[in-house]
Amino acid sequence: HAVTGPGGGAAASLTAPGHESVFSFQALNPGLFVYHCATAPVGMHIANGMYGLILVEPEGGLPKVDREYYVMQGEFYTEGKYGAEGLQPFSMEKALTEIPDYVVFNGSVGAMAGDNAVKAKVGETVRLYVGNGGPNLVSSFHAIGEIFDTVYQEGGTQPTHNVQTTLVPAGGATVVEFKLEAPGRFILVDHSIFRAFNKGAIAMVAAEGEENQIVYSGKTADNVYLAEGSTIQTMPDRTAPEEPKAKSKEERIEMGAAVFKRNCVACHQAEGQGVKGAFPPLAGSDFLNQNPDKAISAVANGLTGEITVNGNKYNNVMPRLGLKDEDIANVLTYVRNNWDNKGGEVTPEQVAKLRQ
Prior knowledge:
This protein is an alpha+beta fold and 356 residues long. It is 21% helix and 25% strand. Helix 8 crosses helix 9 (325-336).
């Protein structure tokens, strides 16, 4: 897209197997430009990752920043569902209906997450060169916990300031800049949010430095909300119906499936595969199978700090979900009896003993 000339250089770059081609063009326009294979079938070539970015700096260059990174979004259309093992062929049917199985940054799930997170320090300004290879979807690019101080929309030269989310069209680009003022992991997502947590569009900026309580205090209180005054209100004439309780392991598994779909599937995924670098897998999980009490405590009390699951490290926060003992017993029994886990049953009595 940076090339001014017939076909954007497509004909000149057509290269037979075993050959290489050379052509030249003048960089007439400053900006951030997508390049991609333009040989038929164009859509299939783009959908298989044949694209990248070209930065044409203005005369005198861009303003100085501390760190620069490239982030390229794209989608993959595969015969198998998200997370299916083995080589997955391209699905033309899914491409035509624009329903990808994967939406990713820099070519694969987890390419910029977990141990692959890009690094920065508190006080530094980070510039991201963000492109969208497509071939179909528009990106709603967002950094959780940051405001973009400057955005060069469409990869052009006119800046916009104080932007929360910026659109990046298929075949387009943008440049974003932000100063890091607190330490931690800042998650980059396509804010068409199911693409992030269910299809892979997650990247991370790991910022090191001292805490700044003025900028961000973290949670300072966790109290019960008291409606209509300072005391809990009661309605003595109404009795909440008692929820049904499982009478067998089989019923516990069935009820647990419903609890899982309501509370767990967004992060840990429908088949328990998790999201690499963000949310640990429940399928075949050594963390769950080695010590059931760890799983009970995590669901009942929440979990913070680094853990290792199947050899991979995760360092995020699992909130306390507020589930009843019966629900926790049901959902963990469901998980333990699916996805190559060891089986067994968790009871409400076990949950009650570990609840803090």
